[in-house]
Amino acid sequence: MQQDAIRTEIDPLVLAESWSRDGRRVALATVVETWGSAPRPVGAHLVIDAEGNFEGSVSGGCVEGAVVAEAAEVIETGKPTMLEFGVADETAWRVGLSCGGRIRVYVEPVARSA
Amino acid sequence: MDLQLLARFNAARSGRKPAILVTETGSGAQRLVAPGDITDADPLAAELRARLRSGKSGLVELAGGGQAFLTVSVPPPRIVLIGAVHISQALVPMAQIAGFDVTVVDPRTAFATPERFPDGTLLAEWPADVLEQLSLDPYTALAALTHDPKIDDVPLAAALAAGCFYVGALGSRKTHGKRRERLLEAGVTPDAFDSIDAPIGADIGAASPAEIAVAVLANIIAALRKSPDPKEEGLKGEGGRP
């Protein structure tokens, strides 16, 4: 049933917490701004671990690969970063959004308090 | 993001408590804001309050330069139906398809049977006895469908007091007139009473229980999704999220 699919959808924020509690090193990516036709809304999340496992979506598949690669760097350095993807961006030709929109994605590490 | 902060945010989300995670995108600094935390001294106070109403996440400019991203979490909207009646039998599956969690309350055990209500939460209790469990809040819609004051009145007054985003009541104009007298006597303000959707449902000429269910669901969605428009104030079925 479709309804069940909606209700059991994995919540990236809950997953980020449980992965981190499991001792995995985790980054969280969030769509913070969109222009034009964007595949995922502002506030959409993707959770990534240091092994490159991920759940959720920031673009419905268009730029996830690039975000996951950047997340490895964020996990390593512990410093958040802002990414931008879209037709106006040179990277768009490599990983671009086929819909022609632009998105900005904030990627931050999830840190265990000392 | 600090894990403890994320854990607090997730706890609020799972507990149906509205919350906003404020992230300064330049520095990465973060804080968690609950509705009760917002003071007028907060430079983002107006923005935070507006976001709690709309439920929309987004970037805001900071007075000192730079930007902050507001991750806004408001509880998923749900519906409480008073009365395990024929309309409710049609309304439960429709509301579930539209994405609402639904709870049906009716103390009459002949009505409130699992056979008649295989899906959703069914409470064969007096509404007054389960008010706490229902935890009515501004992200809840309540429709009273029994016609019976003994069952409908208490949850209607409770829903108005809790600021439910939609409150509707079944009944003829005459029934509703008597209801007005009773509820005003019980302390409900005239303004609050007049916000009740009655005669219940969008004006689509609904006749059968299933059609009335469509009309009720339409007004619940309108109350949830349409911003209050001053031009349309007073029109039946119009309303905004509080």
From TrEMBL, chain A:
- Ranges for domain XdhC- CoxI come to 19-86
- Tell me where on the tree of life, at the top rank, the source sits: Bacteria
Protein name as catalogued:
XdhC family protein
Organism of provenance? Stappia indica
The taxonomy runs: Bacteria, Pseudomonadati, Pseudomonadota, Alphaproteobacteria, Hyphomicrobiales
Automatic annotation (TrEMBL), chain B:
Please report the organism this UniProt entry assigns to the protein.
Stappia indica
Pfam families in the record? XdhC_C
Protein name, per record: XdhC family protein
Residues in XdhC Rossmann domain copies = 80-220
What InterPro entries does the record tag this protein with?
MoCofactor_Util/Proc, XdhC_Rossmann_dom
